[in-house]
Structure formats: C-alpha cells, structure tokens
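@here heads up, posting the sequence + SMILES for the zinc ion run so it's all in one place. Ping me if the SMILES looks off, I pulled it from an old spreadsheet.
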Amino acid sequence: MQIKCSHCNKMFAENKDAALAGMYAIHNDGQNHYDATCLHCQHAVRISDERMKETYPNWEAEYEEMMKRAAEFEKKQKKLVEQAASSKGKPKKEKKKRKRKR
Ligand SMILES: [Zn+2]
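bot reply: prediction finished. Complex structure tokens:
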C-alpha cells in the first residue's frame, strides 16, 4: 500500500506482509492503528485501522495465505539446510582401528 508520510510528506510503499501482520495485531491486541515506518525519514506513520481495512478488505484470508507461504518457505529452508548438511558436513567415519591380535 502507498502511504504518504506525515512527517516528510513523501510517498512510500508499505510492505504488504508487514501490513497484514499489523492488521493481525490490530485485531488481536486491541490496537486501533498500524504504525508504518517511513522509508525516507524513519518516522512511524500512523495508519488507522479503517484505512487498513479499506486497503486489505480480505486481510484475514491474505494473512492466512501469508502464514502458509511462510510455513512452506520454512519447510523448504529446512530441507535445504538438511540437504546441505548431509552432502558436505558429514563427519568422516572414523576408521575402525582393529586391534591386531598377535
Ligand atoms: Zn517520512
């Protein structure tokens, strides 16, 4: 979503995932606004929950989508890490030293 900073009056695009997480916070933590951070001056820009709802009327569905994506991404990451670990990081098996019986 495009936001106009109330401090420096510049426009910036708010990350959708962050905004959706913000909506979730509004609903579950009883907040009545979302604080976006201006890319230009780093000030917090207050966005009312009405504005948020207008921008993301289906935020609940989109939030769920996002969480699913995040979970899948994590799974993939885990797999990659496991693959990487198994392909290179295996500790070499110690050669068994056979005690020669004399
Ligand atoms: Zn600003």
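MO: The chain has a mean pLDDT of 91.
MO: One more: The first strand starts at residue 2 and ends at 4.
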